[in-house]
């Protein structure tokens, strides 16, 4: 019955040995890449390269990049392997500046993979989009986030801030899970400011926006694996035809977009929000390859909804968590809010928020300790000689910036694991080293929603703190336990806190 040799046992043994050898050769083939090029590197582990901590679910992506940084920070840059693919990690703040800002032309794309033929909402949106499409879109959308636009949006955001205050008030005294509640707040804010819609997720748990918000950001195993492939295993993502948004979510976003567009066109309503801007782009052609139609418009709606939601709700919930553990910081912040608001007839206004300097420091310290996107990535699109070295990065190489490592380096931030907002006090005589604190990224691809995200988080915090004292409760995790499959720092047990009404 044997196939090739005398016995089937020999057949199977030879087959398995060949398979193992091929597998071994395939995975180790690239493992001398950095040695051959004289670039310092971190020794890889078979199959997983330097992504072992995350691949074996020992840590999340942010902690994995922190560990890579901690092992190699004596080198301005270091070679690593993402499974078997060589990539570069930039450790020195000066080089970070060079890659993100000075020589941006060589690194104008992110490394993520999304294929327009089967994933147009993924491929064409501003976050995942590649050049030249990205550049055209960025130019068209930037004005939506200007300071002037923020001022006009303030009142809409502030109304939702009141909804947040009321929502917490309805459950005050019971533990409230704040990641979820903050996410509802940011969903209602984006719906009203960008699409002119009332999502009502803070008031109605069954609101359609609530259901799809959860689906969009749901990190079940299979979704998490697809998403991580889009970020780190581009070849695999291509082969597996991974999509940034799932089919039912895509359909829901398309329906919301086209219903809103059709209604505005029918009523001739002219608003200068995201939908209004996309309507004005409809049908425009930038060159023969880029026409703003259909899904390239819907894609922007989809990404603003997801990018804006997760990042801001992560920041708000971790800030509340830290305040519950630091009553002295909480009281200082509550006093600042009370004192500033007293000057404004106890009303939260755009101007009053600008005066809340300690709130700004607390917000920054939260972004330092828990950066919602804990690493940045760029693809080298034009070969690049690294200044001060003889190494030229070839086209196609992926470059990572380990934000979680830089923002937790004791050389730049004393006692990095403690929550100390005063380190961001401009008058404390210790300026932050440039390019060691970049929670919104930097350069032309910096977060487009930086002002928007900061303003909505501050509005939310001012509403909560003027009315409630934040306390730990029996369900508050300490220390926090981390979900390893999520891209942003995400806790396993949620962020439960108690809210006690402040005495008038
Ligand atoms: C606390 C809030 C936020 C944080 C910490 C944050 C962080 C980031 C980071 C680190 C990047 C990558 C930047 C780079 O690669 O240099 C980014 C990109 C982006 N963010 Fe945010 N973000 C926040 C809020 C928002 C909001 C509210 C929106 C939309 C309403 C938004 C939309 C985007 C988009 C579209 C990009 C891609 C920009 C491009 O490539 O041109 N973000 N964000």
Write the layout of secondary structure elements.
Blueprint: H1 8-28, H2 33-36, H3 52-55, H4 61-72, E1 77-82, E2 85-90, H5 93-102, H6 120-123, H7 133-141, H8 147-171, E3 176-177, H9 178-194, H10 208-216, H11 221-232, H12 234-240, H13 247-267, H14 274-281, E4 285-287, E5 290-291, H15 294-325, H16 327-343, H17 350-355, H18 357-369, E6 376-379, E7 384-385, E8 392-393, E9 398-401, H19 403-406, H20 450-467, E10 468-471, E11 496-501
Parallel strand pairs: 2-9
Antiparallel strand pairs: 1-2, 3-11, 4-5, 6-9, 7-8, 10-11
Helix pairs in contact: 8-9, 8-20, 9-15, 11-12, 13-15, 15-18, 15-20, 16-18
Bound molecules: protoporphyrin IX containing FE (HEM).
The site of protoporphyrin IX containing FE has 26 residues, from helix 15 and helix 20.
Q: Could you explain the architecture of this structure?
A:
The chain is an alpha+beta fold. The protein has a single domain (31-501), classed as Cytochrome P450 (Cytochrome p450), CATH 1.10.630.10. Helix content is 50%, strand content 8%. A four-stranded mixed β-sheet has the order 1-2-9-6. β7 and β8 (392-393) form a beta hairpin. α8 crosses α9, α13 packs across α15 and α15 (294-325) packs parallel to α20 (450-467). The radius of gyration is 24 Å and the shape is globular. The termini are far apart.
The gist of it:
With 504 residues, the protein is an alpha+beta fold. The chain has helices at 8-28, 33-36, 52-55, 61-72, 93-102, 120-123, 133-141, 147-171, 178-194, 208-216, 221-232, 234-240, 247-267, 274-281, 294-325, 327-343, 350-355, 357-369, 403-406, 450-467; strands at 77-82, 85-90, 176-177, 285-287, 290-291, 376-379, 384-385, 392-393, 398-401, 468-471, 496-501.
């Amino acid at each position: 019955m044997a196939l090739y040799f005398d016995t089937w046992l020999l057949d199977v043994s030879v087959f398995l040995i060949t398979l193992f050898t091929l597998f071994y050769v395939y995975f180790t083939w690239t493992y001398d890449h950095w040695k051959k090029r004289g670039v310092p590197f971190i020794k890889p582990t078979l199959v997983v390269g330097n992504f072992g901590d995350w691949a074996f679910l020992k840590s999340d992506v942010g902690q994995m990049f922190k560990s890579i940084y901690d092992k190699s920070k004596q080198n301005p840059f270091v070679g690593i392997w993402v499974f078997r693919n060589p990539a570069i990690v930039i450790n020195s703040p000066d080089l970070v500046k060079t890659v993100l800002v000075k020589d941006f032309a060589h690194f104008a794309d992110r490394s993520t993979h999304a294929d327009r033929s089967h994933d147009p909402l993924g491929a064409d949106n501003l976050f995942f989009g590649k050049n030249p499409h990205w550049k055209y879109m960025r130019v068209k959308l930037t004005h939506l986030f200007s300071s002037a636009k923020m001022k006009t949006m303030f009142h809409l955001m502030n109304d939702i801030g009141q909804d947040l205050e009321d929502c917490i008030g309805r459950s005050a005294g019971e533990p409230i899970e704040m990641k979820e509640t903050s996410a509802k707040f940011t969903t209602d804010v984006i719906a009203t400011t960008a699409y002119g819609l009332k999502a009502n997720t803070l008031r109605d748990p069954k609101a359609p926006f609530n259901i799809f918000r959860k689906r969009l950001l749901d990190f079940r195993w299979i979704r998490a694996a697809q998403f991580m492939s889009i970020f780190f295993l581009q070849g695999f993502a291509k082969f597996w035809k991974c999509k940034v948004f799932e089919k039912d979510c895509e359909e829901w976003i398309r329906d919301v977009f086209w219903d809103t567009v059709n209604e505005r066109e029918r009523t001739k309503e002219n608003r200068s929000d995201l939908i209004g801007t996309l309507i004005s782009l409809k049908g425009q052609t930038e060159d023969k390859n880029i026409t703003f139609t259909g899904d390239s418009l819907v894609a922007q709606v989809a990404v603003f909804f997801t990018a804006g939601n997760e990042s801001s709700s992560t920041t708000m919930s971790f800030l509340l968590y830290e305040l519950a553990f630091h009553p002295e910081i909480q009281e200082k912040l509550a006093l600042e809010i009370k004192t500033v608001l007293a000057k404004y007839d106890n009303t939260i206004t755009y101007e009053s928020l600008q005066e809340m300097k300690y709130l700004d420091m607390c917000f920054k310290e939260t972004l330092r300790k828990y950066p919602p996107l804990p690493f940045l990535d760029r693809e080298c699109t034009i070969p690049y000689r690294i200044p001060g070295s003889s190494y030229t990065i070839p086209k196609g190489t992926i470059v990572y910036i380990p934000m979680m490592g830089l923002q937790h380096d004791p050389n730049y931030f004393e006692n990095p694991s403690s929550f100390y907002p005063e380190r961001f006090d401009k008058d404390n005589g210790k300026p932050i080293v440039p390019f060691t604190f970049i929670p919104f990224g930097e350069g032309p691809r910096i977060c487009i929603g930086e002002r928007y995200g900061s303003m909505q988080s501050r509005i939310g915090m001012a509403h909560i703190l003027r009315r409630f004292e934040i306390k730990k409760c029996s369900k508050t995790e300490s220390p926090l336990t981390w979900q390893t499959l999520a891209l942003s720092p995400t806790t396993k047990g949620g962020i439960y806190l108690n809210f006690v009404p402040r005495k008038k």
